[in-house]
Design a protein that fits this description.
Elements: H1 7-12, E1 21-26, E2 29-39, E3 49-55, E4 57-62, E5 66-70, E6 74-77, E7 83-98, H2 115-119
């Protein structure tokens, strides 16, 4: 990355909901942005997953609790915890994940995106 990236503007430019795009790499991790609306798929990862809300409100349902994040707030879903993000209105988020993290873990759904899709420019 040679130039500063405005994460909010980058997320706004994404056409499809629940289709994260890689905007930077930090060691063996990816920084991703996404535009989300509606409900995502219940899934889990073998790694922790960092969420930050850039604009809007994001709800993360887990079996033991539900957290609601507003603009500027962050939350880490621990590895192995089943979760389902959702947003009633359009929401812009940033994710910080290992490069090996699968979009929906071992769960496959119509919303699952391959890493090739995530690496393509928005």
């Amino acid at each position: 990355m040679r130039n500063p990236i405005n994460l909010k503007h980058k997320a706004q430019s994404i056409d499809e909901h629940w289709s994260p795009k890689v905007v930077a790499a930090v060691d063996d991790n990816f920084v991703k942005v996404a535009k989300v609306k509606g409900e995502f798929t219940w899934h889990e990862h073998e790694e922790d997953e960092f969420f930050m809300v850039l604009d809007g409100t994001l709800k993360i349902e887990m079996e033991a609790e539900t957290v609601t994040l507003k603009q500027g707030e962050v939350y880490v879903v621990p590895k192995g915890v089943r979760h389902k993000p959702s947003s009633s209105d359009e929401c812009l988020i940033m994710l910080f994940e290992k490069q090996s993290t699968l979009h929906t873990g071992k769960t496959k759904s119509a919303l699952t995106k391959d890493i090739k899709d995530q690496l393509s420019s928005s």
